[in-house]
Amino acid sequence: MRVLAVGCVHGHWQRIVDEVNRQQQAGTPVDLILACGDGKTFRSKFDMNYTAIPPRYRNMESFHELYNGGISLPVPCIYIGGNHDASLFLYELPYGGWIAPNVYYLGHASAVDYVLGDRHVRIGGVSGIYKRYDIGKGHNEQPPFDQDALRSVYHHRQSDFTWLQSAMAKQPPLSTICLSHDWPSCMPAAIEPRLLPMRVREEAQAGQLGSDLSNELVNALAQGQIRTLGDVRWYSAHMHFRGDMTIRKEGLGNDVVFVGLGKDMEPNGFEIIEIPDDTCRESLQNLSDSIPDVMPTDKNLFFAACLPVTPDPLTKTCVAEERKWYPVAPFSRRFDPETFRDNPQTVALCDQTGLPLPYNVIDGCDMQMQRGRAVLSARQRARTVDACAFQEALDCCGEGVTYSHFDRLE
């Protein structure tokens, strides 16, 4: 099995397609793609209003072509979010889901398995970057996002890593691959300063670069708190330079081989991973033929992992039907992203597992009132909108909602 690990995508999905095709023509086909974020996941120009990218650097690139079928990835891709993505779009899928044909987003953090018999390779990932002041908060941002929420929505939370460790610890796999957009903080600090770019050298020497939460996960793997049956490979992006480190195992742990990747499919921006065929040659079927088993033990946390299964023909047929691609957002120029849509993948997952919709109740306020407020705030105040716009706001909130509800909110 050959896996293509990619650093910061920066919207250049066509370059990934070209590299996969080049490998195919060279007789060394790629079976799976792992992308470490900054994909500029803009479905339309409206999504560019909901990104932390400075306006002068905002451009559509090629994700929208991937989304609407203009281009296609020939093999599955597992994707984690970065800090240069469509914040509103990825917000719809906090537990993960398909963001384009053949592109599976891991959500805030989760793990998926590729299985062959009693062996499998586990791929765990965490999206976003580390900011110390947000680690203790919940994911409580609400659209329409202000400038602070556009950034905090992709910041690491302690709760993400708590359930990710639980997901990673289930049924020790033969091989483990971890993905993060931000580097674990121990990695840049351990690299010789002369090998670091000048722009990050001072921060790295002061221990202020990278994610302390990712570092805790690295230590858990190296010390054996999370058991695997082989060494762990860890890929990160974000820093835009190549960095290689190995964290040696302690006791019953495993070596963690870290690779920091560059950007834009440059020579230092991707790597081919070779996994022996007898380990998981058929394990790619797991992504399409198995259903994630999500086990909520705490309504404030969730655990997501694909467990080993042997699907029967009926299951394969049902899953194939569920995987049919239906774009959620239309491509009309009149599309208004402030009219927030529940993503059907998240709704279905929550209905099946009992997980809460993360944007359903915030601080005890009913989401219908929140949506009404969002709609009205986007058009100034309730008293200033015309009759049609106000009726549209009421329709968003359901039956029985009157003007007085909004008057109290405002």
UniProtKB/TrEMBL annotation:
Organism: Kipferlia bialata
One of the record's GO cellular component terms: nucleus
GO biological process, one term: mRNA splicing, via spliceosome
UniProt GO molecular function: RNA lariat debranching enzyme activity
Lineage: Eukaryota, Metamonada, Carpediemonas-like organisms, Kipferlia
Superkingdom field: Eukaryota
Domain Calcineurin-like phosphoesterase: 1-179
Protein name per Swiss-Prot or TrEMBL: Calcineurin-like phosphoesterase domain-containing protein
